[in-house]
Amino acid sequence: MMQSSCSREHRHRGGLAIALSLWVAMEAQRKKGQTGMSASHWQHGPAPLLVLSCAHVLCSDAVASCVCLDFGALHSLLINGRGQFNCSLAAAHTPGANQCAAAAVNTQCAPVVFPVQPNKTYRLRVASTTSLASLNLAVGNHKLTVVEADGNYVDPFVVDDVDLYSGDSYSVLLTTDQDTSSNYWVSVGVRGRQPKTAPALAVLNYRPNRASKLPAVAPPVTPAWDDYDHSKAFTYRIRARAGTAPPPATADRRIELLNTQNKMDGHTKWSINNVSMVLPATPYLGSLKMGLKSTLAAARPAETFSRGYDVKLPPPNPNTTVGDNVYVLAHNTTVDVVLQNANALSRNVSEVHPWHLHGHDFWVLGYGDGAYRGDAADEARLNLRDPPLRNTAVIFPYGWTMLRFVADNPGVWAFHCHIEPHLHMGMGVIFAEAVDLVGKVPNEAVSCGATATALMAGGHV
């Protein structure tokens, strides 16, 4: 029988999953304060498959996390590394839930506490460090003003809750203007997939109330996991703040990427234009810098997909091939990328995918439902006046998202779905730009595969 427990900065071995979260709380200022929050998830029990995600440092807050998951249901959501398993801090408002042990009995069950002074405005920096789930953040009885996304300021707008996809980071302003005799729940719940995990709870502690005083009212209710109209309403409101650099008026190149779910050798894969990315044994940068053409596919990956493809149906060809998916970009060119979502292998299934680009920010020019056609109707949906600068963008089920960036950072950069299993199942591409301008690469960075052989033969990077 499962027993109630709590999770805090867990590290397991012997096939169990790992979750680590770090956060830094800034001291409150006289009029305004700052605090940090990271949200992640944790798996109890043996894991049939261990998928590792790398630590990410988001913006300038030193908020980082490393999460290792399997494909099963998440057992706990964590806020700043702490959560509950098989019990609830708010059991009185959750039918059938067990109340977590008092902090005096089990200190790990004590909720994360955000101490605040009444009648002040705080900047709350929020980062989703999940490897699987999309999340939704809400603070009981409080409005949130979104002012920053992925390290770039946005035109402020007020919401009741914030959707966070894997890799997202936001700054929101919170004004402590509610009843000062109460504390309030901070709630984080699952979005984008059928939730089998209770929301994570923390406490917004209005001083001088005791931090152990749990809020008397029920926590905020997370919107339905498949309420995509709610998600789109939030996402579409994100616009660049005045003064943000605008995108180039036109692009030199357009790359259209169709996301499909496929099969290979009996295994489920994700594919881009029907090619599932497999990371090679030889590092991309070493291969390209040393001219080791035999380590990469000779054929260039497709830059578009059939306009006749029906994104509302499972793929007519469920099979896929593998490749390294390297797109070579000319230095300082402007590139448009269209991300097209589609039906998965099962009918009436299309998932949310947050795509993250390394080495660059991009402008999110627009979104659309259904198949991208590139016609006048699609062009009319694009925003060239104040598109937000991001490094992570979502594509909604059966929809498309269009991005624009300038290839001005020499190197080899991954562009991939930030849901960690999807990346390892093939949902990603590589952008290589001006590799000849990259300085000397440490031998230790390329000492595997064919580059190791070339180095031993006297070559250099």
TrEMBL record:
**EC code(s) of this entry:** 1.10.3.3
Top-level taxon: Eukaryota
Q: Which reaction does it catalyse?
A: 4 L-ascorbate + O2 = 4 monodehydro-L-ascorbate radical + 2 H2O
The listed locations are: Secreted
Cofactor(s) needed by this chain = Cu cation
What does UniProt give as GO cellular component?
extracellular region
| Coiled-coil region list | none
Specify the Plastocyanin-like domain's residue ranges: 75-208, 317-434
Is the Glycoprotein keyword given for this protein?
no
NCBIfam families, per the entry: ascorbase
- Report quaternary structure and partners: Dimer.
Q: Which family does it belong to?
A: Belongs to the multicopper oxidase family.
Q: What is this protein called?
A: L-ascorbate oxidase
Give the source lineage, highest ranks first: Eukaryota, Viridiplantae, Streptophyta, Embryophyta, Tracheophyta
